[in-house]
């Protein structure tokens, strides 16, 4: 079995698809938490100073 056999190519293609799917994740959870906290702080600030 050589490096360019069809069996190896399909395995490589499947692994590449898995890696690409991981790269399509949404915004990381840390950034979501920080942005939610900022929005809450802004809303609270608007309520206090209104």
Could you explain how this protein is built, in words?
The chain is mainly α. It has one domain. The chain contains two helices and no strands. The model has no long low-confidence stretch (mean pLDDT 81).
Features:
mainly alpha, rod-shaped, single chain, about 50 residues, about 0% strand
Lay out the secondary structure.
Layout: H1 6-23, H2 29-48
**Helix/strand order:** HH
Backbone structural class:
mainly alpha
How many strands, what sense, and barrel or not for the largest sheet? none
What is the average per-residue confidence, as pLDDT, rounded to a whole number?
Answer: 81
Q: Indicate the percent of residues in helices.
A: over 70%
| Global outline | rod-shaped
State the domain count. Answer: 1
The number of strands is 0
User: What distance separates the N and C termini?
Assistant: 74 Å
The fraction of residues assigned to DSSP E strands is under 5%
Total count of helical runs of at least 4 residues: 2
CA radius of gyration is 23 Å
Low-pLDDT windows of residues: none
Keywords: Membrane, Transmembrane, Transmembrane helix
Transmembrane segments: 29-49
């Amino acid at each position: 079995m050589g490096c360019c056999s069809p069996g190896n190519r399909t395995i490589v293609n499947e692994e590449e698809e898995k890696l690409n799917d991981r790269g399509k994740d949404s915004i990381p959870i840390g950034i979501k938490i920080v942005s939610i906290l900022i929005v809450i702080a802004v809303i609270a600030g608007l309520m206090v100073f209104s």
